Amino acid sequence: MEKGTKQVFGSLIVVLFGLSLVLSGLIGSPKMAVAESKSPYRNVMYYGDWSITESEGKFYPKDIPADKLTHLNFAFMDFDSAGNLEFTDRDAAVSVAVGQKAAMGGILNALQDLRAANPNLKIGVSLGGWSKSGDFSVMAANDASRANFVRNVLKFVKYTNMDFVDVDWEYPNSPRDGDLLDNKEDEGTPNAGPADKENYVKLLQDLRTGLDAQGKTLNRAYELSVALPASQWTMSQGIDVARVFEIIDFGNMMTYDMHGAWDGVTGHQTALYDNPADPYANYGLSIDGVTKYLLSKGVTPEKIVVGAACYTRGWDTVAEGTNASQPGLFQPVERTNKNADGSSSNGADNEKPLVAGDGGTVGGIWAYRSIDTLKAVTPGLTEYWDNIAKAPYLYSRETGAFFTYDNVRSVTAKANYVKDNGLGGMISWMQSQDKPTTTTKRDELTTAIKNGMFGAGKLVGNTLPYQALAMDMKVTPYSNDGTGYEITITNKEVVSETSDVLKPVEAAAKTVKLPRLYIPIRDGEKLIATDHKAGIVKSENGYTVIDLASSDARLIKPGDSYTFRLKSSVAPTDLKTVTLAQRMTASGQELGQQVIYEGTEAPPKVVDIASPSVPSHLRVTKVASDGVVLNWDASRDNVAVTGYKVYRDGKEIATVTKPTYTDSKIASGKSYSYTVKAFDVAGNISKDSNKVTAKIPVNKAPSKAPNADPVGVVSDTKTPAKSTATSNLPETGDTSPIGLVLLGCLLAGTSVFYLRKRH
């Protein structure tokens, strides 16, 4: 998906084109980091950098319902053929205000604050996209350019402290011209060719190798994902499915835009199942069809993430047809509307005004949050439900307008399908288009998806690693003008990046932001501020807490120093330790902590005889014939929790270091009870956690579409099998100026291909 109208391959036309953090926001003692635990599914969402503009209602990161998500993709990052990264909107990424008083501007910095407050959330960058995939072919084909690209991506995710990289190459071996009427910045894919298939694998493998190596150095685990087309034909031409899925952690299947105004007959753009009444049903343009195709290629189900749409697509004038209960569905379309350049189109009016070069083609595109407005301005627009496809649509018998979309009912059905078939989760385009419910957060579909897969409880938290900065601190006792300590903090980091992308993100990463200091209180001593330079000084939970957010030390850039004084109620000697924490907003969660000073008053070590706290909220988060997934809340300890002992039916079966375990040694139809104990390095063991029970289901076949035979998988790698139902399809007559070359296919008379548009 991309700003403006985005094209993706899918329905029939006679042409093929391609497509360590702490939870301590409140003043107090330094806190333990949240331990990592794997969620059974993924709720993945795109956030476009244009979301902050007027066109999207100034939707800022702070209003993302992050507590409902596991992954958030920053979209999109561009690059050139030499592998150098390029912002699509530099100001939006790193400098402009984004609806909150923050230490530094831009979306990328705001995402740090968002994730700190929501440890269940992973953030990542999506590379390419529909209009910015033009340089993939040349870059990936050249060893030096590909290596440069990988180096730059690794630096970017390190500086922005991201958790994953998403490659959105649309699409390998799918040449097309840029659709400049719809998006003047659309690069197209003019250099795409057969070599892309192998070079795509090389690129992913190089990224995988680099991410794993950097993760080992930084003590963290990076994920690698890809965005893939729903069209089986497009995948067969440019994507070695089996090899790609061996490399990546998960694949985001773009099972939306599978029908749209480029078609001469209506259909569902994001159906769960194929409806046999659809003349294109044999092509598997549904979640079920795509899933079966991938499984036939040996893909692990847990790596398949299927898509939902937070927007509509629509046709302007559609015949009612003879099915009174489902009027307009799978019916022919008249070309009665016009694009911004005056060319004719099947598409219904968009929510946004037509502007050549910035949304210049009509396609019936409305945000999900605006559907009530769409109904109000379209006489007779009525909602219908296709119980076979498990998909809603809107049709007006008065005007002939037809719109296809997702709603709460359809995304809930998709979430159930994910669970029933052991898939990896769901991905949605895009957050700004979702509908707000009770707050400014746009969350109606997001919440339905989350609750459908995970239930109503909180999502599992992750370890949020932060790299310590090179810092120096000098503490000098003074006795003139009272007694106390003069403290000088020096940021010893050095910046070296010069590129337009890496320079600002490196500077942000190496700058101390809204610092807060924690100093253990000595017996009988009280520290207070001498003047405004010390900020706000309080005593909390055995610590003197110095909040410098309101002082001149709001930002301490690389190479800078800051000096302030604290008055002491007793004769000063030295401080025990000083711990530095940072924030992106004054009221936000801390972005990690690090000890920057250890004085002569450091406390002596003591013998550890205290047991860790009891693991709490033990729960079964997934039960399948091949395993039981357990998660629990991390224990606390006066020193550190070393690990956990897992017990089944009273017997120890495993020792793990993180609060999650998958029991794969199970038998179909049996029941098992589980408890967990925590232990520390001194050997102290906690009491038993709460007990949970799991009933193992009897093996069953994958779920099938109701009221419909399974859709056959297209296996011909040259041309999709031509359905007899296509012989009477209406011609689209599409004259949209996007460089489509129809003549060869028309002369051949036998090839049937796909084209898709996506916003």
Report on this model:
By secondary structure, the chain is α+β, with helices and mostly antiparallel strands. It has 3 domains: 6-26 and 36-310 and 407-462 and 722-758, Glycosidases (TIM Barrel), CATH 3.20.20; 473-598, Immunoglobulin-like; 616-695, Immunoglobulins (Immunoglobulin-like), CATH 2.60.40. Helices cover 17% and strands 27% of the residues. It is built from 13 helices and 37 strands. The strands form 10 sheets. The protein has an 8-stranded parallel barrel, surrounded by 7 helices. It has a 5-stranded antiparallel β-sheet with strand order 24-25-22-28-29. Strand 24 (536-540) and strand 25 form a beta hairpin. Helix 4 runs parallel beside helix 5 (196-218). The longest helix is centred in the N-terminal third of the chain and has 23 residues, at 196-218.
General form: globular
Q: Give the helix tally.
A: 13
CATH class of the largest domain: Alpha Beta
How confident is the prediction overall: mean pLDDT? Answer: 87
Approximate strand percentage = 25-35%
Profile the largest sheet: 8 strands, parallel, barrel
Task: Strand order, main sheet: write it out.
Answer: 2-3-5-6-7-8-9-18
DSSP E strands, number: 37
The CATH architecture of the largest domain can be named as Alpha-Beta Barrel
What's the number of structural domains?
3
